[in-house]
Amino acid sequence: MLFGFFLTEACGLSMAEMSLIMAASLVLNGAVDAGIGRRWRTLVVSTVDAMRRQAWGAPVTCLFFLLVCATPLIAHDQRLGWALFMLLGFRASYPFLDVPQNAVVALAGFSVETRQALLAKRNIASGIAGLAVGGIAAPLLVRGEGPVAWLTWATCLAVLACGSAWWLARTCRPDETGDTPAEIAPIPSLSFGGVLAALAVMMAAGATFRTLEPYQATFAGRGMGIMVWAATGGLASQFLWFAGRRRVSAAGMLVLAALVSTLASLGLAWPSPLGSGLAGLGFGIATGWLWLALWTAMMTHAAAGGATGYVGTFTCVSKLAQAAAMLLIGRVMARSPYRVTLVDPGSPPSLLMPLALLAIASTALALAFAVSQTGSDGKPAPPRPAGRQARAPAPRRPASS
Prior knowledge:
- With about 400 residues, this protein is mostly helical.
- It has one domain: MFS general substrate transporter like domains (Growth Hormone, Chain: A).
- About 75% of the residues lie in helices and about 0% in strands.
- The protein is built from 13 helices and no strands.
- Helix 8 packs across helix 10 and helix 10 runs antiparallel to helix 11.
């Protein structure tokens, strides 16, 4: 959320330099995702295997994260090289933490319904993390509190990441799935290729919106509200999904996500804190629903076998889409004095965010159409009364001659 803004505003790099560093590191991240995902398909076959590997990956990942955050302490003429290599190290090590953690959801042996509920809980935790970033970390950068405050925040984050990774490895036990019946059936099965196509568009658009949030907050006068409301929308979206799914089909919920994202794009045309809040909230809700739907569909494929392979491919496509978004942002923002032009809602840098919201809406509509074509609305079948079994049809008598 803040790496791009950190590199340009706190480290003094140009927009073109920032976009190239971010894109290169994301491409590397995606390549490592796919590589270890494929290599570990037969090595990581249980939750215990996955938890042990993510615990080993956490310290290296956190070390490189701290080195990236220490860039302002480096001499200005050496910051570009330092930021590039440290960010490459972070992106290359992150999959060793991320891929096995994600694979746990598929390896645990849950039913599809329980898996979706677990994914929703993870997204809620992610929303809480987003609130912390928007409410604590972003103000430290925007107000220029200095590298000491920023490094203190980064150190606390690294300790939490390592501590939770080690705790998961110590507490994980084999064959403890804890499966429970679910009240809401998941979305119907989608082809893995379709899932990846929808993911690519959504992640490119989402990365564009997220990267530009702190720039809009700082230079367009929108304030931190847009970041806080985006995180709040992502948090609330998981509760709203399950509440809505009791009454509406999965396709209907995705159509509603498209409508919410479209309305959010209109909020950006309203240069006020209220308009920014509506835009952020709509973005969080729409992407939260799409994210849950895509992860559920991917995990259904991953649970059938070769979990890390599916997860690695999924996250690889996600990183490559984000890299494409960073190159686009760098190209548009470098051609404009964005610190001035972002005040104008009609300027090219300002138009990137509403266009991203419309792309998210289009993805939701396409996914809704794909879900509707499966021939099922995703609602649970009514329970059969206990003690009654269906009778076999009586054989027909041959007609008399």
